[in-house]
Specification:
This protein has 599 residues and is α+β, with helices and mostly antiparallel strands. It is built from 20 helices and 26 strands. It has 3 domains: 190 residues, Heat Shock Protein 90 (2-Layer Sandwich); 127 residues, Ribosomal Protein S5, domain 2 (2-Layer Sandwich); 236 residues, 2-Layer Sandwich (Ribosomal Protein S8, Chain: A, domain 1). Strand 10 and strand 11 form a beta hairpin. The longest helix is centred in the C-terminal third of the chain and has 20 residues.
Length: 599
Amino acid sequence: MAIRRLDPILADRIAAGEVVERPAAAVKELVENALDAGASRVDVTIAGGGQKLIRVIDDGGGMDEADLVLCVERHATSKIPDGDLTNIATLGFRGEALPSIASVARLEIATRAREATNGLRLRVAFGALSPPAPVALAQGTRVEVRDLFAATPARLKFLKSERAEASAVSDVVKRLAMANPGVRFSLGGEGIAGFDYQACPQGSGNWRDGLLARLTQVLGRDFRENALAVDAAREEFRLWGFAGLPTWHRANALAQFVFVNGRPVRDRQIAGAIRAAYMDYLSSDRHPTLALFITCPPRLVDVNVHPAKAEVRFADPGLLRGLVVGALKESLASALHRATPTTAAAAAQKFAQNFPSFARPAPVGNWDWRDSPAAPTLLDATPGFAEAPPAADARAHEAAPEDGDLAAPLGAARAQVHETYIIAQTRDGLVLVDQHAAHERLVYERLKRERAQSGVARQALLSPLVVDLDADDAARLVEAGGLLGSLGLALEPFGPGAVAVHEAPASLRTADIEPLVRDLACSLAEDGAAAPLEKKLDHVLATMACHHSVRSGRRLAPEEMNALLREMERTPGSGQCNHGRPTYVELKLADIEKLFGRR
């Protein structure tokens, strides 16, 4: 069959399949164009999930007639002024979005440049261009896309429900709003929960206030209460933003937002670095909430590796991974014992639900609370109540609390309940501590410090353990011998495709060494890192900490309880145990008074 040139409109429709695979992708391209035009306000309206209508209005610089005609031609763009693809400083640059959209929809662009006396309108119907015409318009640009994919019915079949497509549009606009807190964003239309985010300008030299205000608009008040600031730099990379407390986690990673030079991206290596940073604080099936921004010179990142610009490639991914892991760990460590306040709010709400009569003033008259169906059984004064053994150790009341302990963040210990929970009093509330979970975390952190200071304890094997491997895997292990030796694993080559292990970490059983070596070889083949060994050691340390910590059911003296509280205040990550559960709940006096109808 002879080779022939494709029809230009057909070529544009093929390109549209890569660039604009759904309405949300079209919205992303149009909003990015508005931001590149210097808009301070972007209004988005959709109908039918974006398939029937997409309207994007901005107050940016607008276009003159020459630019208006060129913008719908393929590979025409203003985003690469010098033609250097290694120096991309804008969000959109491929020059395919508008012609691709115009080839599969009815496109209308109305624009007015700053110095123009009137606006211009251009219409393209499924690739057929109409000449520009005058139109009344304020400064900026209005783009309307109707009947998206009407010219390609096959694409329509793969669209999801209108509700699902509208949700994807909302997610796209929210991500772009996070990256541009100084711009006002609104979203509306049928079948969608709209929003109007007011601009959050940043203070002079302070990025935190404006960004945190915008993230609060998008993610809710809980994010503000649980956010930790992140700000670090290494060589020409800078990382900044906010990360959630480990005790405020999710079942999936959908609430993790990463931006590179203002561009929302998905990057497996960054996602892996986030998991590594939270590894000591969360179980493997839970994920933190965060919004991280990475800035670097454009030459250090390739943004042209994905048609929809959703993925990027870094010149030095190892450097960036180290920056992300180090910055997040530093921020988490600086939080010390801090835990999410939403746990306390949930506890107070649960208490009010179980005991609704506590939340309103007691009635007057000849009413006996024992006759109420909502009477709390904890206060049931049956004859056997006086003979029952006490559930709390009140020995801490024998001496008045020290002023220093009361002023401390976790207060002064006042009682031990059910020989498991410590009740501490602060100046403005009380703290309930799970003694086993808290001490487990303290022991774990202490073991890690000892490992860092004196190195991993080694144990020589009675006879070398020979592990047969693929020749390439064995070579990678031998090459990484220095790093493995610092982690307690000493090995050497043993003929082709095998290694001999002479020393192993003392905390590992001999039966665990061979599968550990094999897993380590697979990891080195994947990314050249020895993370599985460190993770294994950390897991062993966590297990040791669990078995060597204060168990539930052990009665503590007041001095022991206070010592535990003080050590928690000094220890990073003590707000949660090794499994990601909170170690304490704090109730403010004002919240307690609300439960009893005092407020």
